[in-house]
What we know:
Elements: E1 13-16, H1 26-39, H2 46-52, H3 57-64, H4 67-87, H5 98-107, E2 111-116, H6 120-127, E3 138-141, H7 153-162, E4 167-171, H8 174-182, E5 186-190, H9 197-202, E6 207-209, H10 212-217, H11 219-229
Parallel strand pairs: 1-2, 1-4, 2-3, 4-5, 5-6
Amino acid sequence: MTGSRSPSSRPDTVVLDLDGTLVDSVYVHVGCWRAAFRDVGVDVASYRLHRAIGMGGDKLVAEVTNESVERSVGDDVRARHAHHFDERFGEVVALEGAEDLLAALRGAGLQVVLASSGERALTDRLLDLVPGTSAIRSTLAGDEAEASKPAPDLLAASLERVGAKRAFAVGDTVWDAEAARAAGAAFVGVLTGGITEAELRDAGAVAVVAGPHELAARLDEVLSAVAGALPPAGSEGGAPGQPDGGR
């Protein structure tokens, strides 16, 4: 219950992922990456691509193939992925409960920020699909950070921008969890990206919910779990925006 958390223990900021968290785009991305690789004569299984969604495109090519493929055709594959995604953009919609979640987070007094691995133009275009984004105080895109997820740079910069003291991140992949941990934030997982609850918990999730609709409905319970996972207020460990050197 809200009354069981002291004001000093509550999180003050939430960092939201976009793909697979607010918009239903993960499997569209999988298909587009697969098509992009096949365009250049490289066949990558869909399951391998799915497990890499959520990391920055600058890292994905080598992750699902090898450094030789990255050096030879990496930029071409990324450009072709962007082309295919543009062609299939009409398939992407806001996830059920995305608007309710944004309203609930703001109503809980949280600073709502968004950190997406996508480039700014695509991030803005996807956000246009989501009602209620006026609740978002700050948005940071992948091309505005030194290193992409799972590096903590994107989250750390987002937290620093709003002066976060105690923060948690919401995302659908293990890469989101890694970035949150390295940025000194707690992590809450959603299942709308197709990664299992067990994997998200193994990656460090303090709570896992079906999607934004369930997170909105169970927000007080989740905030209690987050408060219990963060270091005590005033302690020296894991300040948000101060990467711990993790991957």
